[in-house]
Amino acid sequence: MDAVEQLTGSLPAGVVITDPDQVAKYRYDWSRESSAGTPAAVVRAEDAGQVQVAVSWAAEHGVPVVPRGAGSGLSGGSSAVDGGIVISLERMNQVEIDTGCQVAVVEPGAFNREVKVAAAEHGLWYPPDPSSYEICSIGGNVATNAGGLCCVKYGVTTDYVLGLDVVLADGTLVTLGGKRIKDVAGLSLLKLFVGSEGTLGIVTRAILRLVPAQEARATLVAAFPTVLSAAAAVVEVRRSMRPSMLELMDQASINAVEDHSPMELDRDAGALLIAQSDAPGAARANEVERMQEACRVAGATAVFVTDDPDEGEMFVEARRRAFPAIEARGALLLEDVGVPIPLLPDLLAAIAAIAVDHEVEIPVVAHAGDGNTHPIIVYDATDTASADRARRAFDAVLAAAIELGGTITGEHGVGRTKKDALPDQLGPDVMALTRRIKDALDPDGILNPGALL
Predict the structure, then answer these.
(1) Which of 107, 125, 180, 402 has a Cα at 20 to 30 A from 419?
(2) Is residue 220 a contact partner of residue 275, using CB atoms and an 8 Å limit?
(3) What are 77-114's pLDDT values in tens digits?
(4) Fold agreement between 216-320 and 330-442
(5) What is the pLDDT of residues 277-332, one digit of tens each?
(6) Would you identify the CATH topology of the domain 216-320?
(7) What CA–CA distances, in Å, run from 244 to 157, 284, 318?
């Protein structure tokens, strides 16, 4: 009996798949990262015990393990490894709401949207809100410390993780944290695993903090002649305000959405800002009025305000459609760079210059209120010269963010697409410390090798 047959025999029928056509579906995430390998098998685990069996088997045989959620990642974090196994958590998708503790107890394969819907049935809300919330899994959100559209006010995934069950590299299952809101006993190991991209352990359960349902929202949409004037408005708004949403679309992304699924956006605008306020009562109108003034001072050519939730959601939906709309234009290299908010105009100017220098199209959408931008490099995958220019532009954008004191990733993770730039951001001492932690928890290096480090 070979090793894979041993693995198959140790788990229930149908859990392990080796058919090449089925296995091929688990090679890539949405980034289609080029170095993805072909795994020897895929384990579609149904519970934490099966994850333990698979990881213990991998540790015994020195086989690489790549954890995978919904496959919606944008940095190659779940790209398969030749000869390894993929542990898919898609079947582990249960969601339970504890209203007394105001938490959701969630398996990693559950979609972000499913948690929101389950919480809403009890008048509660799970705020982390990636653009892909309908198709991304909680396990992937935890692995990358995902953010989203509401994070400017409500924070990112780590701010809502109270507990985790994690399978370590030797197959041990540990429980960290719990339903307690305050707990400082021992080292903060819980936070170590949030954002670790499957390199330290595999999450099999998460306890997520919920909050009361969001207040009614007012929506502001402002058009600007240039993306830099829109960025100036963002800087001014964030000097004294923290709206519940502050998103940016440049002209290229606006037109991509209009080409793909027309929503009557202003094609001539250099950029759009989409902002929301959920402040209570009269404070909401006051906050919107102050944002309107900031937009006008920055040079907005038009400002529209609505209290109608459906009308407001229409503009938010336009922003969410940007990724699939731009994807229709060609092959993509997706970036996730961020800077301190006052430097947002400088970052956007640098991205525009890089697009010109490398002769590539780089539409930009942004969680602007966080200083987190998504430059999306479009190229022709059938043209070697186009692909080479795109890759050089990708590296140049990362370097520009670092030069401005920013980050190569605000929410998508380092994965495999950005790991070469990580030492430039962190420096040798922090990289060495990171490797020491990795070596301590995964001495044989079997967990998601090639990702992050």
Answers:
(1) 107
(2) yes
(3) 999 999 999 999 999 999 999 999 999 999 999 999 99
(4) yes
(5) 999 999 999 999 999 999 999 999 999 999 999 999 999 999 999 999 999 999 99
(6) Alpha-Beta Plaits (3.30.70)
(7) 16, 11, 17
